[in-house]
Amino acid sequence: MRSKVAGRGNVLWKDCEGKGRAKMLRGRHRGHRWALRALLSVFIFAFLFAAIPVSAHQAESAHQFTLQIYGNANEDDTIDMRDVTYIKLVIFGKKPETALCDANYDGRVSMLDVVQTKLIIVGKEGELTIVDSANRTVTVKMPVKRIVSFANYNCEVLRSLNAKDKIVGVDEFTKYYKRFFPEISELPSVGTIENPDIEAILSLEPDIVLTFGTYEMPYIEEKLEGTGIEVVSFYFYDPKFLTEEITKLGYIVDRREEAKEFINFYEGVIDSIKSRTEGIPDDEKPKVYYECFWQDYMTGNKYATDHWIIETAGGINIAADVADNSMYIGYPTVSPEWIIEQNPDIIIKRSSSPPYGYTGYEFDDDSWAKSLREEIMNRPGFEAINAVKEGKVYIEDTSLCGFLSVAYRAKVFHPDLFEDLDPQEIHQEYLNRFQRIDYDLNKHGVFWYPPLED
User: Fold this and answer.
1) At what angle do helices 111-122 and 81-91 cross, to 10 degrees?
2) In the structure, what pLDDT confidence band is assigned to residue 237 with cuts at 50, 70 and 90?
């Protein structure tokens, strides 16, 4: 098996926010790692949602991408007989060679690649070579039957693809979510992302280990070298690139149709909202100040996932052009005076599970969210801000990532335009249809405070 940083030919790998995820994660202090794990606790997902701007993808939207799987010779978003034809034309000198033509990843394009591509199409391939979200080329032995996960996002996505039975071990952070992961949280622990239990991983005999991007991945990869266990990295939080990652995972775990069904669902939600917000003039859009959950006065600029969420929901991110000034690319800190001067119409403060809050799937009492909102509204000088004057200060749990966050925010940003939109109904359908858990949002959870009016 070969696993290396992708860099062959014309495989394009563009960061989702314009910056490299690896840059974002390099140099992070261990003292901030729990904050990262908490921020990433969600999905939908990332969707869920709100995250650190670090992805590498060719596309500019959720619907345009090159599926980074070897065998996708024509570099579209799927592998089909058109790729078989393309490889044949390359062999005959009628088409230019692309990096993904080398379906069996042996360094040359031949009829063996035609055979491999046909096997991929029918789901009978013995190996599958992909470029993961950490920009690494990884060859996975197929079929994948046993998976160890080092991120709750991974588990959430696998459950969305009806592949949770393949999970055999999880990290300690995932085990915390007893309500959201009633069965998965009972699986054996493999330690934490920064302190993995290698012996526990080996004892579970997984086919692959799923990690969160580049986060501690080199260490895990080094420890597992020579064991036959491949490390594959995904982010699963940025809605702009979720389609590609879900599609890729669908191939890996043999859940391609389930992946398509889920993609159709969440893209349908986003598209229905974008179709309305794209035509709103800027002078009719609310100015929005977003604040991270792990640090007061840390916001997101145009490189942050939350910038995309705000814009898609029909708002204007007041911090879009603020320069990076912290270790988190895309997440600069600002002063209270700057916020007051910008005078946002809406303030959104993210919250999470302990130690950064008491919201989400595991909590029913919204008193902590209420107190956090009051603290923000009572900050010195904030009484002059429109958002505070009009009571438009909201607490949003990190589990409302991506398309769910877009739905809740669109409802708040433009209540008249989205009078027919019910974010909780979308959220409940996601839980019932894709997460397949017994969880009634009318009775449980704290995700948006104050609650949306009926």
Assistant:
1) 180
2) confident
Separation CA 434–CA 228 (nearest Å): 31
pLDDT (tens digit, 9 = 90+) per residue, 107-125? 999 999 999 999 999 999 9
- Condensed to tens digits (0 to 9), the pLDDT of residues 178-206 reads 999 999 999 999 998 888 999 999 999 99
Domain spanning 280-449: CATH 3.40.50.1980: yes
CA distance 20 to 135: 10
Q: pTM of the predicted model, to two decimals? A: 0.85
For residue 140, CA distances in Å to 208, 251, 283 come to: 8, 11, 51
Give domain limits for the chain: 280-449
Count the Cβ atoms, other than its own, within 10 Å of residue 399. 32
**Is there a contact between 291 and 264 (Cβ–Cβ < 8 Å)?**
no
Is the pLDDT higher at 239 or at 16? 239
Which residue bears the tokens 């199409």? Answer: 121
Specify whether the CB–CB gap between 216 and 194 falls below 8 A: yes
Nearest to 11 by CA among 53, 61, 63, 70: 70
The tokens describing 142, both together, are: 């197929």
Token duo for residue 129: 């070579």
What is the C-alpha to C-alpha distance for residues 78 and 224, in angstroms, rounded to an integer? 31
Spatial distance between the Cα atoms of 217 and 232, rounded to a whole number of angstroms = 9
Cα dihedral 301→302→305→307 (10° resolution) = 80
| DSSP for 380-425, written as a single string | TTGGGSHHHHTT-EEEEETTS-HHHHHHHHHHHH-TTTTTT--HHH
Contacts of 284 (CB under 8 A, 6+ apart): none
> Bridge partners of 233?
211
Sort 198 into a burial class: Cβ within 10 Å, 0-12 / 13-18 / 19+: middle
CA geometry: angle at 68 spanning 91 and 102, to 5°? 25
In eight-state DSSP terms, residue 45 is B
The dihedral sign for the CA sequence 390, 303, 98, 72: negative
**113 neighbors 176 (Cβ within 8 angstroms):** no
Q: How far is CA 180 from CA 124, 155, 209, 432, in A?
A: 34, 11, 21, 12
Under 8 Å CB-to-CB from 390, ≥6 apart: which residues? 345
Exposure string over 302-332, b if 16+ CB within 10 A, otherwise e: bbbbbbbbbbbbbbbbbbbebebeeebbbbb
Reduced to 3 states, what is the DSSP secondary structure of residue 311? helix
